Every structure is written in structure tokens, then in C-alpha cells.
Amino acid sequence: MRKVTAIVIAAMAVVATLAAVSIDRSEAAAALGLAAPQIAPVAPAPSEAPGNAPVLTEQGAPAAYGDGQAGIWVSGEGTISVAPDLAMLDFGVEVSAPNVSEANSRASTAMDAVVGALKARRVKDEDIQTSRFSVYPRYDYIEEEKDGIRSSREVLVGYRVRNNATVKLRDLDAVGEVIDEVVAAGGDDVRINNINFTLEDSKPKMAQLREMAVADAKAKAEHLAQLSDVTVGRLIYISEGASAPSVRGFAERSFDYAYAAPAALAAPSISGGELRLSLRVQAGFAIY
């Protein structure tokens, strides 16, 4: 019994010694008289996995995909120029009067006259939309002196009514004439705030813009790959920037249009020019 105990203690000492000096597991097993454990080799990572871009090995062969960010990531843009088919005219009336009732009555009369002029041009009711209506007081500041102390106070002098609207004009050749008629109908109370040329519906241009944007993204990826001595692989990601193309004109157009007597007033010259439609995509390509 004492011999068996001594053998067990000796075996335990051998194991502790082997662990302390980090002896290989196969050597430890041999020291205990056991068979060496069989360790299965780890299978290499696949060369490609959906949704990730490959990482180049030293030999140039594609290794496992990384964290999804490796590869070539570019943006592509499609751009075309088209003629506008719609003018958005922002106009309104502004009236000041001693009381709210008078200001509102005069503003309503002026706006009715303007809308009547538009309907005479066969503009539909659904193409005229109120964009803003406001009523607010007007004050003057009076300075006074009492007991040698100067002070100021505000005094209510009346009210101002503003009524703004936006109208769609589809006959672009007649925009200048329409503005002239609106100003004549509204008199001194009318205001022409802005005019914007656009497309009634830009979605039919989407297919052409997409083709151009994707082709632009592919060309950029090929150029970057050439500069970096890599090969472009399959497309792994693509996203469209917006559901409709961006529509831009030459610049923001605004008008400060003063009323004059009809006999001395000439219709303003208005030109729609061209519009620039653009669409962007973001794309990612694998590299080898």
C-alpha cells in the first residue's frame, strides 16, 4: 500500500513539474505512460463569404473576407440636363390698416383680384395653394420725458395682413405675361416673392440616371484598382441616394417687382433655361 501511494505522489509531482515548465502536451502524456492526444488541424477559412470583401495574402490569392469594410468603396453620379416644364410662382398680398377688419378686407379683395386674373389664364383651382397667412400688430415707439427722465413706450398704430400663395404655371412662354397681370390685378398690395422652374414629374428620368450612376461607380472602381495593383471582384454593396433625382437650376431666382401704371408697364422677360438632374449611388466591390 505504501508503494502504491509513493507511485501516485511521484506521478503527481511529474505532472506539476511539466505544467510549470510548459512541456508539450504530447511529452507530458509520454511521461505518464499515456498515449499522445490527437489534435485535428483547424480547417482554413473559406476564400470568399457573402457580404465581405477579400483580404490579399502575401501570395496574391484571395483569403477570407474580413469585417465587411475591405474592398473598394466608391460613389457614382448620373447627371443630365433637361428643359423645365413647370414654373412655381410664389406671390402674395400685404396690407397695413388701422384695424384688423380693414386690413383683412383689403387683403382679401386684392387676393381675389389676383386669383381672378390667374383663372382668366385658365389656371386650375388645384394649382393655386395658400402657403402662408398671417395677421400681426404694428407698433411705433414714442419717446417722452417726465420729471427729467427720458423713456420710450410702444403705441399700437395698426395691423398688417399677409397672404401668400404658390401657383403652378405650365405655359412657360406666358410666365412674364402672367406676372404682369397678377401685379396689375393686385395693385400696390401685391408682392412677387420668387419663381422656381422645375419638372412636373422627374421619375421617368430615373432609369437613365441610375444607368449613368452605376457605370460611373464601376469606372471609378476599375481606376482605383488599376492604381492599387489589385483586381476588381464582384459587386458586394449598392445603395441609391434618394427616391427621386435632385433638380437644380442655374441659381436661386428672386424678384422685387414694383407696380406701375399699366400703360407704362412692360411684361418682364422670364426664361426657364435648363435644369440639372442628378442621382448618386454608393457601391462596394470586392478586390483580389
Which descriptors would you attach to this protein?
single chain, 36% strand, alpha+beta, disordered N terminus, four-stranded antiparallel β-sheet, elongated, Alpha-Beta Plaits, 288 residues, 5 helices
Number of helices: 5
Radius of gyration: 40 Å
Task: Estimate the strand proportion.
Answer: 35-45%
Q: CATH topology of the domain at 87-196, which one?
A: Alpha-Beta Plaits
Output the CATH homologous superfamily of the domain at 87-196. Answer: Protein of unknown function (DUF541), domain 2
Task: Report, as a whole number of angstroms, the end-to-end distance.
Answer: 69 Å
Q: Unreliable runs, pLDDT <50, ≥5 residues?
A: 1-11, 13-67, 251-264
Named CATH architecture of the domain at 87-196: 2-Layer Sandwich
Describe the structure.
With 288 residues, the chain is an alpha+beta fold. Among the domains are: 1-39, no CATH class; 87-196, Alpha-Beta Plaits, CATH 3.30.70.2970. It has 5 helices and 10 strands, in the order ααββββαββαβαβββ. Strands 3, 8, 9 and 10 form a 4-stranded antiparallel sheet that branches. A 4-stranded antiparallel sheet has the order 5-6-4-7, with helices on one face. Helix 3 runs antiparallel to helix 4 (175-186). It is elongated and about 90 Å long.
